[in-house]
Amino acid sequence: MAGTDIKYTTRDGETFDGYLSAPAGDKAPGLLLITAIFGVDDEMRELSDAWAADGFLVSTPDIFWRQHPGPTADMNVAFGRYEKFDPVQGMLDIEDLVNDLKNRPQCNGKVAVLGFCFGGRYAHLCAARLGVDAVGAFHGTAIGQHLDETDKVKCPVSFHFGSEDPVVPMDEVDAIKKSYVSHANAEIVVHEGASHNFAMPYKQGYHPEAAAASRAAVLKAFKSI
Among residues 153, 159, 163, 69, which one has the least CA distance to residue 119? Predict the structure, then answer.
């Protein structure tokens, strides 16, 4: 199931690129996929297509279009644009992206948000601020910076971490677990032996067992909406 390249338009009339992968059928829940720092590369396109095959209308934007557009395998470029990313402006863009997805004719009005690495922070913030219908994250970074907003989260949550991840230490994961402890429909899971990028098959750190288990859990959460 192959997707197509698309253009998004912001509230201020600016345009930027993305990738849309649609399932069979007339109406489906939307899934906004927020990538790792490498952007919409071939790996993310394949992952987007796989989620579409599971029944979601998947929107995968070039989230770093304001800093340095396009996919990159250059770590200096990837980390440079990560450091320059403005979270305030980024959330405005993400709100526009959620609205764009909701308003697409094939979307049934429901939207889930899935974050890989960098995208995990914004999945959490979408749940807290934008009223999306479900969120998931694989080895999501910087979620711990916004735990004061967890009490605003009402939707299903499925966050997955690796026990050996040097980027997301276990004390941060423990804090995330504690912040979500009273949430009736949240799972914060640690996968033993997995490191960073465990859910990304083209990256060093890929862990097939953790990838499969975490994806199944997120899929279950998203299918509940």
Answer: 159
Burial class (CB in 10 A: 0-12, 13-18, 19+), 83: exposed
Query: Which candidate, 136, 94, 130, 140, places its Cα nearest to that of 114?
Result: 136
Q: pLDDT per residue over 30-44, tens digit each?
A: 999 999 999 999 999
Cβ neighbours of residue 196 closer than 8 Å, sequence gap 6 or more: 117, 139, 162, 165, 166, 167, 168, 205
Which CATH number belongs to the domain containing residue 89 in this structure?
Answer: 3.40.50.1820
**pTM as predicted:** 0.97
Tokens 């749940």, residue located? 127
Structural domain that includes position 38: 4-223
Cα(147)–Cα(42) distance, rounded to whole angstroms?
A: 33
Predicted confidence (pLDDT) at residue 1 exceeds the cutoff of 80 = no
How many structural domains does the chain have?
Answer: 1
